[in-house]
Design goal:
Length: 85
Amino acid sequence: MRYINPIKIRRVKNIEKKKTVNGVDIVKKVDEYYMYNDKGISGQTMTNGIKLSLDTVVFCSSGIQDANNGLMLSALQKAIKPVNH
């Protein structure tokens, strides 16, 4: 197992649709994966990076949110903060 910074990974869902003769959209194919980029994910870096399949990534929420930006914090945040200082 390896920790991945959540700012550097994003879930991507590509939906391929096909129109019928009646004009109704039918979902032909759904491609879901995680995109990981060590430099971070932005609009320009979405195509660059490593594709990870859905079953290789596990998300475990600690239930603790940062008050400033709403990101989930690690369960070890209280121990990591003094070590970094």
